[in-house]
Amino acid sequence: MLAAATALVVALAGGQHRTPPPPAAARAFSLAELGHPGSTITLASYAGRPLIINFFASWCAPCQRETPMLARYYESQHGRVIVLGIDSNDETAAAVRFVRKTGVHYPVAFDPYPSATTTSYGVYALPQTFFLNSKHRIVSHILGPLTMKDLIAGTALMDKDRG
What we know:
Helix content: 25-40%
CATH architecture: 3-Layer(aba) Sandwich
Distance between the termini: 47 Å
Largest sheet: 7 strands, mixed
Order of helices and strands: HEEEHEHEHEEH
Strand order of the largest sheet: 2-1-5-4-3-6-7
CATH class: Alpha Beta
CATH topology: Glutaredoxin
Structural class: alpha/beta
Low-confidence stretches: 1-15
Shape: globular
Number of strands: 7
CATH superfamily: Glutaredoxin
């Protein structure tokens, strides 16, 4: 029975090893920096550098649990890992209070309703996190709250092409 199932899988797959498609390019953006009127954050400003992009909001319960862990991870990396938050569909004052309360010291962009950047990434539920390599191609995408295991695995994938 197992041999028949294996033969069927091999037959359906054509007996060939398939190379996964190359990672998709991250969409360019330019957004206001949360809490810094007149400042903007762009994807292009991080050219050539791997990057973690975390979409969140102050009103999102899973984000409230995830963000302090992400902030601690960022601090523990001492600049070796770049994290960029994108606060989506939120009120400015609530977002500023939230990032201060949760100890966020990485840059946070503000994407108010209708959240064009957020939706351009296909994000319709929060939180979601994208790991980008140095060419700003998406090498991993986590739907829902991150774990420390996710951060370590995603960072390892980002680092694969450095060099």
